[in-house]
Amino acid sequence: MPSALQITRAIREPGYSPPGPNAPPPPPFLVKPTTVARAAVGVYHRQGAASARRYLHGKMKAWLNHANPSMAGNARNTVDGLDYYIASDGEDGRPMLELARKTVVVLPSGSIDVRIDVFLGDASGVAGRVVLWDGPDFHPGVAPVMAAAYAKALLSLYPERTATTLGIWQARRGRVAEVDVSAALAQLPAADAVLSQL
Question: pTM of this prediction?
């Protein structure tokens, strides 16, 4: 089943197509930084910045000193991305309510897996945050399309509360876009058009 993350990737990287079902697994240096960075965000929200940095440095230590410049650079970008995330979350100031929930969202072209990384208490309801750890950057103008499926998921995961915003955070690039849920939902047809091409 396609994922909302793959939709965001296709929006940011024209021509992108997800790997087929028989494709070999990606090499560890492509997936480990994302896996440990996601976990580090959870450590940060539960235990604080110092614990999160210790966790990430411990997991990435060998990679940070790798002889291959690409692997070392990937690790450094991940560490810098966590620092950016911690600083930006501190500026945001909204309290964390919950971490990492998944659901399935149905669009006209099919069903997609959706994971929202962080749920935040907002003055008038609940906000969601998606933290991207891959390479491609994005222009803020496409953020509502990227946020569309996530906004629909936020509504289904918190039906009893008012959904306010959906944040798209590209930690490695220092890019943040906060999208009103209503603006994101208005872009569901555009997100579905991307899905239909995956």
Answer: 0.92
